[in-house]
Amino acid sequence: MKNKQIISIVLFVFTLHSCTSNNEIDRTDIVSESLGNDQYTLTDTQFKSAGMKLGKLLTSKFNDVIEANGIIDVQPNYQASVSSYFGGTVIEIRLITGQKVQKGQTLFVLENPEFVEIQQEYLETKSKLTYLKVDFERQERLAKDKASSQKKYLKAETEYQMNLVTLKSIHQKLLLMNINPDKLTIDNIQTSIHIKSPISGYVSKININKGAFVNSSQPAMHIVNMDKLHVELNIYEKDLPFVKEKQHIQFKIQGQPSDDFSARVEQINKSIDPENRTIRVHGKIEKSNYNANLTPGMYVSAKIFTTAVTKKCLPQDAIVEINKKYYVLVAGNSLNSTYVFSQKEVTVGATQNELTEILNVSDFEKDATFLVKGSFNLIAE
């Protein structure tokens, strides 16, 4: 560490509040003198007024960190592309992008004359089946009594069974149209059908317009359940042995000044991408971290915290960086209610949870005391 000839005065201004009869505020200036050779002295009043604190080296667990990139995604079972089994003209769209929707809620309405024809066919087949059933049962009795030929009985049975199959087929078709066949009568035939959401979630995309004709199976809307978001990360194969389930993940949205989000490793893919030599890691986002800013498809940068190692450290506030070097203030013996500090260079390692690893611990006394709050105000070039 370079020697510094310091002949300076570090000025600290603080406000002392006192209860006086005229409610005035007294202001006192505190002066700390640099003694040279990187030593500083403070009175007890200065120390307390500046809110400074002392502390010793701490012992804390630090995790090795694996850097990874990926995206926000949703499990396949919790997103749906909505389409219709039947083509029709869009006459109503009941939701907009971003709106919340419940499972079974109507998304849009289609109209088509063919819908009327299907319902008509169902009612006609149902009516005809009533007659065919009666005739079949009559022919069955006559055949048993040998009062009619077996041929007529078999013909009546065949016609009845064929119409029964047709009726059940149309019955299922009406269910796909969200029309209740059991309540269908000649008086309530519908010209339109309601397309409903298969899951609860949010509308993420709308591909249709009012008045447009939508073909069967054409994707019309996309629904995403935002409560089931997760992160899909890519790690290099060299890092695979160190990544385990339930390890902590900390990630940020790339390109946004957002806060850190938390997740846990839930699943590790068993196959390696042959081109990039990467492996996919599935991370479950913690519920407390669900945020309106998280949207499927967003790119993220993440850290996976792996093996925990116990290390000696100090609070970040105890360390000051000057010209890419790091310094701390070590407390000396107090005299006459004063504090004396010596500036020492430190070699730092990892920083986690506002604690910084100290690599050159052997350079300090075992019971050394450090200024852990307020160092920045004292150390100067």
Explain what you see:
This protein has 381 residues and is α+β, with helices and mostly antiparallel strands. The chain folds into two domains: 36-72 and 227-381, Efflux pump adaptor protein, beta barrel domain (Elongation Factor Tu (Ef-tu), domain 3, Beta Barrel); 78-224, RNA polymerase II/Efflux pump adaptor protein, barrel-sandwich hybrid domain (OB fold (Dihydrolipoamide Acetyltransferase, E2P)), CATH 2.40.50.100. 18% of the residues lie in helices and 42% in strands. The protein has four helices and 24 strands. A six-stranded antiparallel β-sheet has the order 1-2-3-21-20-19. Strands 5-14-17-16-15-18 form a six-stranded antiparallel barrel. A hairpin with a 2-residue loop joins strand 22 (348-352) and strand 23 (355-358). Helix 2 packs antiparallel against helix 3 (150-176). It starts with 8 loop residues before the first strand and ends with a helix. 20% of the residues are buried. Residues 1-36 have low confidence and may be disordered.
